[in-house]
Batch of 2 targets.
Target 1
Amino acid sequence: MDKLAIVILNWNGVEMMRRFLPDVLKYSREHAVVYVADNGSTDDSLSMLTRDFPEVKQILLPCNYGFAEGYNQALQQVEAEYYLLLNSDVRVGEGWLRPMLEYMETHKKVAACQPKLLSVDAPEMFEYAGASGGFLDRYGYPFCRGRIFDTLEKDEGQYDDVCPIFWATGAAMLIRSNAYWEVGGLDGRFFAHMEEIDLCWRLRARGYGVVCVPDSCAWHVGGGTLPKENPRKTFLNFRNNLLMLYKNLPDSELKTVMRVRACLDAVAAFFFLLKGEWKSFVAVYQARRAYVQMRPDFVGDRAANAEARRLVKIPEQNSNSILRLYHLLGKKKFSQITFF
């Protein structure tokens, strides 16, 4: 069994791998074996890997399973104490793995961690997908140390402490393999988006820790598969967020949160309409309809999560509404956010 397996899930990402895989190999050889799991690509990915990166181990999947199930299918074929899920559009540097590995080795109750995530195009800025660790508000809206909604902070060392977080970014998540499978892995029904938050919620509810280790650093392009304004992305984010809430919220909160979310989703749809984004307006309602249709399939998951839950109140879930704090009170930085 390997100590650490870096697994890059690829779908038609030949140009990203040409650009970023050399540094992954250069700066990870000391600690990790590198895999590329190919999600049924139709571009030149496999021939390029074989020709230019023969030391990379290949896992061939027969079709595009999406991010969540693609990783489940791939990781079933990897034997390692730790997995590191790494996007193909992430740049890494010298010494990037050691701080995370050393932290995990000395903190056995921590199941997963992430590096500080900065932008490839603006390296002084935090990156949207994870910044310096992810959090959640009471209505299911994610935010980060260094990023709230579309407001990105400049990295000035203000979030360089190791910090307990609610969720670690799926762009660069190091996780114990036994913990990954204990909680059921990523939820393949999500296909893509919100799946890492759902996974980390299950970990935290069972008493495991999730942290950001900023001494490790990586740089992310982001939006490589679906741009932020893509209606398909809107659909997946809204649908999966509702499914995640249904799966994980305790009974005492579920009805109230879902009633509020129905109102907030209607407001979000209205603002898409005001901006002339008709397809995203429709996507919100399609997402809510899909959630209702899929919900019966998640009844068993909800019961299993409730039975396994050790923490009802997770400290990294903000008891406030991040929408209210951000839009009404003008709290644009994580350092301005109060949790209670």
Target 2
Amino acid sequence: MLYVAVVLSGAVAWFISTIAAGGAATLLIPIIGFLLGAQYVAPIISLASLCSNPARAWFFRHHVNWQVIAFLLPGSLLGAFLGAWSFSFMKPDWIQIVIALFLISYFIQYKFGISTLKIRVRQYWFFPLGMLIAFLSGLIGATGPILNPFMLNYGLKKETLVGTKSINSLAMQIIKLGTYAAFGVLTFEVIGYGILLGIGAILGVYYARHHLFHIDHEQFRLYTITMMFIAGVLMLAKHV
């Protein structure tokens, strides 16, 4: 039953994550923590992401914005290494609280019609953004929704946003997993559960893509921002 629960968790989380451009890891943090233990969260979710992102990147390969990738990916690779390395000796719970408040505040601003990120995001911003967000991802295991407001403000929509994030995440997870392995975090048990979660993730991505193609940009934006709020609440709830 534990194995079935892990696969189903991956399917549901990545279905939601695909139509909302992120949030699978945040949804899974309390679930994986409850089922397997908090120490397994970051490496198992990273391995599952490595399984799911090739599928998501393939399904949305014609929509990738390679100009954004050119700036985002180098920063993400550097940040992923530093974050995964730091994971071996740091337990920065306070970072999750800051991220949670950011995600919730963005939802509140959107809900009440307050303009967010008035300064237009420039292409070169994605290098430092990628480095910071990948660092935090390697450290706490879940930061995907943080990048969404910047990508939305830059002008990426629906399939383009999902496809671009998938390419970046795929490369980032490879670096994170290699670093986890080098520092002894990636055990055979972690690999087994990560693959099970990844199988569920691939199923979730497959079924979600059909829904994504049939919604408009405003629906997608609402899904995305709602997912940011849910992710923020879940992260904050861990520390209350």
